[in-house]
Amino acid sequence: MTRARTPRALTLAAVATVAAAGTLVPTPTAGAVAPPWTVVAHGLNNPRLLTISRTGIYVGEAGFGGAGPCHTGGDGSTVCYGTSGSVTRIARGHQSRILTGLPSFAGASGAQAIGANMPMRKGNRLFITFGLDAPPSVKAGLPSRGQLMGTLSVARKRHGSWNHLRVLANLAGFENQRDPDHLGKDSDPTGYVKRGRSFVIADSGGNDVLSAKRSNGRLRVISVFGNRTEPNPFGPGTIPMQAVPTATAIGPDGALYVSELTGFPFPPGAARIFRISRGHVSIWATGLTNVTDLAWSRGKLYAVQISDVGLLNEPGLPSGSLVQVHHGSAPTTVMNNLPAPYGVAFRRGTAYVTTCSVCKGGGEVVRFPVS
Hints:
Elements: H1 7-14, H2 16-21, E1 38-44, E2 47-53, E3 56-61, E4 70-72, E5 78-91, E6 94-106, E7 116-122, E8 125-130, E9 151-158, E10 161-169, H3 171-178, E11 189-195, E12 198-203, E13 208-213, E14 219-224, E15 228-231, E16 238-241, E17 245-250, E18 256-260, E19 271-277, E20 280-288, E21 291-297, E22 300-305, E23 319-326, E24 329-339, E25 344-347, E26 350-355, E27 363-369
Antiparallel strand pairs: 1-27, 2-3, 3-5, 4-5, 5-6, 7-8, 8-9, 9-10, 11-12, 12-13, 13-14, 15-16, 17-18, 18-19, 19-20, 21-22, 22-23, 23-24, 25-26, 26-27
């Protein structure tokens, strides 16, 4: 079995047959009823996580790869490097790419790319996590811009443009030295949250959550997530299933909450939300499926499920949902039938969600009210 741990690699494995046929953009059917959401940005390349500040909505676009160098990705396919990634800003009804030329890995179709994951603006700084979905040694063959992959990096705004992009915290390097889960060196920084003078980052490839100091990027382990066993869907016995943490959030109680995608075989209802307080890790909620992001709004916790039936059960483009998460009971659906949703952010009772997150040129940001 191919060792695949990260959200992108796992999605690749689940929708490989569709990826070979095209770019995974959903095709409208004749006479289809308009969806119950409003599109606020379109034409995005593999959009991932998003954040909201007083200056707008910022979306990470993983891009669509390029001409190379190439290597074998987490699902066994060939992926090639390029600088097609970007960050899009949505403000006052307009969208624009404010930062381009960002590193990206993707296969020939340009779908299911690896690249910019989550941008967060703080004053004249723009922090960005970049995926890698590969052993850190892959970076040795990449040009200078490719060294941003597997890191939390920061750009500064000067003279009206974002530039001077540099690495703040090298999670891939940390993984290469430490490999905290001892399951092989693999790094893929995804969602993070600012807490005090640090950022708390989920490394989906490393199966851990790390803290990075804002002043010098020094990393330390907050938690490592171990394996579980699941029935083998292709034969007798059981197989190990990795956790794959995807995002972090601070709750109203001050505790850290972490979402879980789960690894292969992606069983429905097996994803969990972890709560970390004073170094103690507990399971706060269960019964979710393939969670890629989470966020608190008005004292309630919400999560994005990229697939509602489990990625292994998807015949094509995954169909997921935004759900409200409850402690001690099953989640409730807020909005379903979302095409491959990934990230969520809230503003004044409205949810903003990235969709078609594994699509080249077909990604969107949609909005809908949440009661």
